[in-house]
Amino acid sequence: MLPVIATINPATGETVKTFQSATADEIERAIARAADTARTYRTTTFAQRAAWMHVTADLLEAEADDVAAMMTLEMGKTLASAKAEALKCATGFRFYADNAEEMLADEHADAGAVNASQAFARYQPLGVVLAIMPWNFPLWQAVRFAAPALMAGNVGLLKHASNVPQSALYLADVISRGGFPDGAFQTLLIGSGAVESVLRDPRVAAATLTGSEPAGRAVAAIAGDEVKHTVLELGGSDPFIVMPSADLDAAVKTAVTARVQNNGQSCIAAKRFIVHTDVYDEFATEFVEAMSALTVGDPTDPATDIGPLATEQGRADVEELVADAVANGAEILCGGARPDGAGWYYPATVVSAITPAARMYTEEVFGPVAGLYRAADIDEAVTIANATSFGLGSNAWTTDAAEIDRFVADLDAGGVFINGMTVSYPELPFGGVRRSGTGRELSAHGIREFCNIKTVWIG
To answer: DSSP string of 188-251?
Structure first.
């Protein structure tokens, strides 16, 4: 039985549109088309790829309002954040169009030192890359793979989350309309059960996944068995540390945004707020007041701050973690109960006095729920921050130079943001350590992930 792939409006729970899963024959044809295209696409010039990418960016920008409405319908993010995501994707396309050739230029070594007339490293595409993407940023997550992969000369197969099929189909369509060859980027409407056969196909060279830790483990195991390269981004439980020297008003304002962005469903959203005891009470009072004032409701209403969670199961998972924390001694300072009515809504929630026995202490809460922790000093703050198996982003607020150095050195994460919140930028590498994944997306590091770094020695 083929899996259900459908747009279900999380604001109402209504199934808007269903899609037929790809059959085995359709999957085979798509892989064959990708492999055929890869052989000629790798020979196109950077200038040609960049021209296609600029057209794609222009199309996406022109269609941003409609694209935003589609994303809001599929996963519940507010219209304002959805439009911002669409425009960010256009920026990402243009960034790699303008910089890929320089990023992948030959890297020359000292030829004399290796007894050669010439010696250099050359970046060459791997071929067909499978991208397994989540629903929370339906376009940006996929674009941050697609833009560098296409500019490097790879071709892509997108297996998107089953609740954002329209976003998945749109991305393949806009890339095609941008002028890229048939087969350069295709969407596969398949369930998770079909991923293994695609990944094991010898014509597929590598894979990238953004998603849950169990999904990452499964893909990594298959890729390891096939000796194929992977890039994995598997979530996080990011700390947000506030020290006495911080600008407290700015820290509180940013903390709210950092926690409830994308309705709280972001891997790099701050989730654990660790506050020095000297400013804990003041921060907690202001933070709870600000979180309590947020409007939960229709994501198409400009007055809404937090829309519904993307799936019914997602809300149930959030409720379960909050209930477990309370059962283990935690206190709810605001929120903590689903509102009446249709849709998968959950309010902005602050939970304090979380003990190590609670799952929230180490697990990621994928919704607008903030954990509040008191730290006696910087040593305890760092200890609490690192007391999780994740290591994606991290945030610290201080104006003390020695404290900044300490946080940069000792926070065990793929990124450290001082006096600001974690954001993904095309110009900066993005990824995590420990169980937040392996490899990097974005920047020059991201485009090189799916390249063969070929050593060239000429006598």
So the answer is: ----GGGHHHHHHSTTEEEEEEES-HHHHHHHHHHHHHHT-EEEEE----EEEEE-TTS-HHHH
Q: How much is the pTM?
A: 0.97
Number of Cβ atoms within 10 Å of the Cβ of 189: 21
Q: Which of these is catalytic: 267, 441, 449, 451?
A: 267
Please choose, from the candidates 452, 456, 458, the residue with its C-alpha nearest in 3D space to the C-alpha of residue 120. Answer: 456
Catalytic residue among 74, 233, 403, 441: 233
Q: Could you identify the residue written with the tokens 């199309």? A: 59
**Parallel/antiparallel/unpaired status of strands 238-242 and 185-187:** unpaired
Q: What are the residue ranges of CATH 3.40.605.10 in the chain?
A: 5-235+434-458
Contact 251, 397 (CB under 8 A): yes
Give me the sign of the Cα torsion angle 207, 183, 125, 136: negative
pLDDT at 3 over 80: no
Active site annotation includes 233 = yes
pLDDT in tens, 18-29: 999 999 999 999
CA distances from 43 to 47, 48, 96, 232 (A): 12, 10, 18, 28
- What's the mean pLDDT in 104-132? 98
**Active site (annotated) includes residue 267:** yes
Widest distance between CA atoms in the chain:
75
Hey, is 364 helix, strand or coil? coil
Superfamily of domain 5-235+434-458: Aldehyde Dehydrogenase; Chain A, domain 1 (3.40.605.10)
**238-389+393-418 is a CATH 3.40.309.10 domain:** yes
Long-range contacts of the stretch 432-436 (C-beta < 8 A, 24+): 432/233, 432/234, 432/236, 432/390, 432/391, 432/392, 432/393, 433/391, 434/389, 434/390, 434/391, 435/213, 435/234, 435/389, 435/390, 435/391, 436/233, 436/234, 436/235, 436/236, 436/267, 436/390, 436/391, 436/392
CA distances 167 to 98, 159, 183, 351, Å, are 25, 11, 18, 34
Paired with 337 in beta bridges are none
Residue intervals in the chain for CATH 3.40.309.10: 238-389+393-418
